[in-house]
Structure formats: C-alpha cells, structure tokens
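Issue: ligand-bound run for pyridoxal-5'-phosphate - logging full I/O for the record.

Environment: standard queue, default settings, no custom constraints.

Inputs:
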Amino acid sequence: MIYMDNSATTQVLPDVLASYNKVSEQIWGNPSSLHQMGEVAANLLQQSRQQIANLLGVKRDEIVFTSGGSEGDNWVIKGTALAKQKFGKHIITSSVEHAAVRNTMKQLESLGFEVTYLPVDQQGRVNPADVKAALRPDTILVSVMAVNNEIGTVQPIGEIGEILKAHPKVHFMVDAVQAIAKGMDAVWFSDRVDFVVFFWS
Ligand SMILES: Cc1ncc(COP(=O)(O)O)c(C=O)c1O
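Outputs:
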C-alpha cells in the first residue's frame, strides 16, 4: 500500500520515537515541581520550546504547547473573543474551516457573537477583497486557515495580512495545522499574524 494521508497522521520517525521513549523512561518528572526531577524536565521543555522558536523565527515565550490542533483553535478563538468583547463582537472567518474552528464559531454565536463566513472560489480560495469588505468597526478577529485539510488549497494569508495592517486592533489567527506538510515557506506567510496554530506529529 502507498500511504497518501500523511497530513492527517504520519509514521513516527525512529529518532523521534527513540527520543520520546527516552524522555518517558528517564525524564518523567513534573516540570512545575521544585524537586530535581522536575527541574530536569523543565529544562528539557524550555530547550524544546527554544528549538521550535528558532525554527519558526519567533520568541521562545510565544510558543504555547497544547494537546493538539482543536485545543489550540479553541483556546485562541474563544480566548480572543472573550477578552476583546468589550470592543466588539464581530468575527470574520471562511466557509471552509476545519470543524475545530467552525464549531468554535458556532459556540460563540450562541454567546451573542456575530460571525461572517466568507465564500470561496472554485479552488476553495478566499478572496482577500472579501475580507476587506467584511471588516466593520466592531470586528475583533479574523480567522482563516493556511492550508485546507480536504483539498489542500493554500489561502492568501500574506495578502490578508497586508489588508489587516491598516486595522491593527483586529487580531489575525491562522489555523496552520495542515501547513507544516507544505514546508516552512507555506507556513511563514505574514508578519501581521497574531496567532498561528500548528500541529507537529
Ligand atoms: C486544518 C485543521 N485544523 C484543525 C485540526 C484539528 O487538529 P487535531 O486533530 O490535532 O485536534 C485539523 C486536523 O486534522 C486540521 O486539519
């Protein structure tokens, strides 16, 4: 069989598995604990945070580990919406987001937020001009995925970022769970992005 679903989940590299086993067997202390085993685990956690930050070109403290993409999407979208609701309750997203984003938006709608779902063209691409047209004085968040999980469309994140530079108070979140498989060029799209959700398997 030729396995063609590596973006969904992929075979673990032997080096990664060896490293995982080593940590599970030898460095299993709670990184928040004050004892020596905790300290060793905390150092390792910081080291891996730094390695990922170097790879992405961001600061170490900007990396937050979650259990997976759905938790990351929920955390960023709900966290931003609830923290910013006194400035407005309007959110813009696309009509082709993963269920992790779509269902989070639905939940926010039930809490009184208004969500604009942008259409896509035949290739599944959002038109950046539609983002611009949908922006309102009460818009607090724009959330558009980087790469579609069903048909692989790469969204124009750089162009949307350029538009949002004129709206510095609007937060920009990118669900980039499928982007790593396309290489770092596809991942690193815009310096205007506030939150990126990645998935490393
Ligand atoms: C684009 C996208 N966002 C979010 C998720 C959810 O990620 P997870 O399965 O790690 O919760 C997926 C999962 O495949 C995805 O493809």
